[in-house]
Amino acid sequence: MVKNGPALQMTSLICTLQDHGDDVNWCAFSAKLLATCSGDKTLRIYNTHDFSELPFSPLSGHGYSVHCCCFSACGQFLASCSTDATTLVWSMDTGEIEAVLEHPGRSPVRTCALSPDSAHLVSGASNGTLALWDFPSKQLRRTGAVNDTTLVACSFSPCSQVFMTGSTYGDLRLWDLDLNQLHAEKNAHDLGVTCCTFAPSILSGGQVVQFHLASCGQDSLLKIWTINKFYSGAYNMQLLHTLTGQSAPVLSCAYSSDGQLLVSGSVDKTVTVYDAKNAVLLYTLKQHERYVTACSFSPTTPLIATGSMDKTVNIWRLEDGCSGGKSLPEKSALTSSEGRTSAGRSKLLVSDWSEDDVSAWLVEEGLGGLVDKFVANNIDGTELLSLTKETLASEMHIESVGLRSKLLRKVEELKSDSVCSGIPDEFLCPITRELMREPVIAADGYSYEREAIESWINTKNRSSPMTNLPLLTTLLTPNHTLKMAIGRWKTTN
To answer: Is 274 within 8 Å of 240 (Cβ atoms)?
Structure first.
């Protein structure tokens, strides 16, 4: 493993799956499963808890090589496409085939993608034809074509209303659900596109809604694009970054579920992990023995799967060096409750204090006589900050008005110290202005505390708290990178 740039995670190989008998062509995660597909005509399904293979795996239904697979949003279904000119829909409850979608013209199907809302499935074929299917009914809705090329890449936008295709001719084309071509970026990759993927977040402001897209190709480049949708209905596309971390054609790319990281696999046998926002190379991973053809991030855990022509799938874990895991010392003043010093406690936010921390603080502030009452009521840091005159009197039975007032003054000083402690503004929820515990990214591109934005959406008619514009979707994506950054900040400040 080679580290580059401001690496925020430790990356470790946790297991290698060696069940396929031919090249691994694609891998895809749902919340609980990993699917892989291969030139051996099969798909294999694993439980992401321990990467044991499910009882109904492998799935055998295709007559030729399986090129691509993707899960429905809920993980109930898996779609796969093949040289046999079909896209199959599988039940993840039983492993049975739910539907056989025969591509118009019976051309080999090279790519397929499901919309985030699971309403549509698109498949692209070797003869340049596109098929758009209504996914719930499995009925063909529309067909289209790009002449004189092979479609090898496809990705839906996070709003599910448009999708991008990439071809061996080197162009990227944006389509709506009526298969109207909204934009064509010709020569996006010299010698051909190999993969494209939308970032999961939507940015909006003024008269523009903005998406990010990553694409890679035979030119050995990974590119990040900005796609602007204007309220007039027009679209344009601009190149934002060109990433040159690999020395041979880049065959696959994928965003993390929070859009903060970008992974790619190459003919040079490497896997690269980038900070997508700043276009900085974080890691180059060297474990595969042949071309890396597939890569995918788990939506729920800090895991990456990479597939290769060496017939294996590697599972990598991104570990925060300060919140547990292999890089954390076995004994730490910040994680061990035994002998935690006041200096150690001061590095924690008050809301993270244990009951022992609260007791130690009471003694330091000359309020040691209250320790027994606090222990009896299981008062930790969060409870301490929420104390009121009423709860002190009626629930904790502290009869002295002076003692109650002194305690509340000390608590207010704690709150004031916390506000003035230099918490980075991006760590504070824009709604509550409190440090986030479960940050999520909303459709406006901003991160919020999950509970706060869910309450906002339920009561504010789906407008953005930051822009006042309508949220195009209420989909909330966990911001794992921000959560880990907050964890690191809490242990070092």
So the answer is: no
Specify whether the CB–CB gap between 274 and 242 falls below 8 A: no
Tokens of residue 386, six digits: 């929420």
Buried b (16+ CB within 10 A) or exposed e, 126-135: bbbbbbbbeb
Rounded to whole angstroms, how far apart are CA atoms 134 and 142?
Answer: 9
Residue 124, pLDDT > 60, answer: yes
Q: Which residues, 6+ apart, have CB-to-CB distance to 34 below 8 Å? A: 27, 28, 45, 46, 48, 51, 296, 298, 305, 313, 315
- Beta bridge partners, 68, equal 81
pLDDT tens column, 237-258 = 999 999 999 999 999 999 999 8
Which residue type does 488 have? Answer: R
Q: Which of 200, 194, 208 is nearest to 160 (CA)?
A: 200
- Model confidence over 88-97: pLDDT tens digits? 999 999 999 9
CB 364 within 8 A of CB 356: no
Query: Is pTM, for the whole model, over 0.70?
Result: no
Half-sphere exposure of 154 (CA within 13 A, CB side): 31
